[in-house]
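Database export, one record per block. Field names are fixed; values are copied verbatim from the stored entry.
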Amino acid sequence: MTSQRNKVRAVSTLPLVARQLGVDQDWLADIAADMDMEDGLIWVYGHDGDAIMAFSDDGIDTLQDLIREHSHNGNLPPVPVA
C-alpha cells in the first residue's frame, strides 16, 4: 500500500502574494488566518524561529475566493502601501 504524498513543489510568501493580488498584506493575513493546510496555507520557519505565511497555488486560489467574498460583503481591502 502506498501513501499519498503532498504534491506542492513551490510556495509563495504572504508579501509576494499580497503584491501580486494588489491587496494590503496585513488585510490579506487577517483573511488568511482561518485557512488550514488543506486550503493551501503553509507556515515557513526560519533559523531564528520567525515564521511567515506562504501559499501553494491552491492556497492562492482560495485567497482569491476569499477576497471576492469579503469584497462582496463590503469588507474591501485597503489600498496597498507601495
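Remark 1: Residues 57-72 form the longest helix (16 residues).
Remark 2: The mean pLDDT is 86.
End of record.
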